[in-house]
Amino acid sequence: MTAKGSTGVEVLLSTLENTKDLQTTLNILSILVELVSAGGGRRASFLVARGGSQILLQLLMNASKDCPLHEELMVQIHSILAKIGPKDKKFGVKARINGVLNITLNLVKQNLQNHRLVLPCLQLLRVYSANSVNSVFLGKNGVVELMFKIIGPFSKKNSGLMKVALDTLAALLKSKTNARRAVDRGYVQVLLTIYVDWHRHDNRHRNMLIRKGILQSLKSVTNIKLGRKAFIDANGMKILYNTSQECLAVRTLDPLVNTSSLIMRKCFPKNRLPLPTIKSCFHFQLPVIPVAGPVAQLYSLPPEGLFFLSSFYPQHPLDCMRHMDDVVDESDDNDDTDLEAENETENEDDLDHNFKNDDIETDINKLKPQQEPGRKIEELKMYEHLFPELVDDFQDYDLISKEPKPLIFEGKARGPIVVPTAGEEATGNSGSLRKGVAMKAKVSPKGDEGDKKPAFLDLAKEDMHDNDRTLPQQLGDQNRTISSVHGFNSDIVKALDRITLQNIPSQTAPGCTAGVKKDYSLPLTVVTCPKACPHVAACGSVLFEGRTVQLGKLCCTGVETEDDEDSESASSVEQASIEVSDGPTLHDSDLYIEVVKNTKSVPEYSEVAYPDYFGHIPPPFKEPILERPYGVQRTKIAQDIERLIHQSDIIDRVVYDLDNPNYTIPEDGDILKFNSKFESGNLRKVIQIRKNEYDLILNSDINSNHYHQWFYFEVSGMRPCVAYRFNIINCEKSNSQFNYGMQPLMYSVQEALNARPWWTRVGTDICYYKNHFSRSSVAAGGQKGKSYYTITFTVNFPHKDDVCYFAYHYPYTYSTLQMHLQKLELAHNPQQIYFRRDVLCETLSGNSCPLVTITAMPESNYYEHICQFRNRPYVFLSARVHPGETNASWVMKGTLEYLMSNNPTAQSLRECYIFKIVPMLNPDGVINGNHRCSLSGEDLNRQWQSPNPDLHPTIYHTKGLLQYLAAVKRIPLVYCDYHGHSRKKNVFMYGCSIKETVWHTSANATSCDIVEDVGYRTLPKILSHIAPAFCMSSCSFVVEKSKESTARVVVWREIGVQRSYTMESTLCGCDQGKYKGLQIGTRELEEMGAKFCAGLLRLKRLTSPLEYNMPSSLLDFENDLIDSSCKVTSPTTYVLDEDEPRFLEEVDYSAESNDELDIELAENADYDPSTQEEVLSDSESSRTYLP
Question: Taking every annotated instance into account, which residue ranges of this chain make up the domain Peptidase M14 (predicted)?
Answer without folding.
Answer: 810-1100
